[in-house]
């Protein structure tokens, strides 16, 4: 999880207080998973509706935020399984819009083009591969934690990550060949 959020203390906090405090973070997480701002909002809304009903149990868990983030991941994977056609679109979201403030200076148009390219390439991945990359690189989780979340072995996580990265590299190389 992001530094400082996984161990956040939410005991004694009402659901409404939790939702207000964590909504922006949950929405950013869902946007990165889905690649679609509207779908991310739907996923988070559905999860928060279910979390509200279960808040007493969730707030008593070791890490309520981790619990809810796992619900977001499961909801994303569930939605992806029910689609008959892949519906992840490049939405033009830039990482800067997602509060990624690494202080990089450069041509803003280049950043938008790079982000759009990344969204398009991520949209070609299957749901588990995409989830593995998001959990590893966006959430900065270790393979053991990812395997626990996805209900698989660490070797499967490494394999999914390697296949996803290989596919992204191939797509990038194909794109370079087209433009040169």
From TrEMBL:
One of its GO terms (biological process) is DNA-templated transcription initiation. Coiled coil: none annotated. Residues 23-81 form the RNA polymerase sigma-70 region domain. Keywords: DNA-binding, Sigma factor, Transcription, Transcription regulation. Pfam families: Sigma70_r2, Sigma70_r4_2. Residues 117-168 form the RNA polymerase sigma factor 70 region 4 type domain. Belongs to the sigma-70 factor family. ECF subfamily. This is RNA polymerase.
């Amino acid at each position: 999880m992001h530094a400082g959020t996984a161990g956040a203390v939410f005991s004694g906090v009402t659901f409404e207080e939790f939702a207000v405090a964590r909504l922006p973070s949950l929405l950013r997480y869902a946007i990165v998973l889905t690649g679609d701002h509207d779908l991310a909002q739907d996923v988070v809304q559905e999860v928060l509706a279910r979390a509200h009903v279960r808040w007493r149990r969730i707030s008593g868990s070791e890490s309520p935020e981790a619990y809810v983030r796992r619900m977001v991941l499961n909801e994303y994977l569930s939605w992806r399984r029910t689609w008959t056609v892949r519906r992840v679109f490049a939405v033009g979201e830039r990482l800067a819009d997602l509060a990624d403030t690494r202080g990089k200076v450069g041509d803003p148009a280049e950043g938008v083009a790079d982000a759009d390219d990344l969204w398009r390439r991520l949209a070609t991945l299957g749901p588990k591969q995409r989830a593995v990359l998001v959990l590893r690189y966006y959430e900065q989780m270790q393979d053991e934690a990812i395997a626990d979340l996805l209900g698989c072995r660490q070797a499967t996580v490494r394999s999914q990550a390697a296949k996803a990265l290989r596919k992204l590299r191939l797509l990038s190389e194909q794109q370079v060949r087209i433009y040169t």
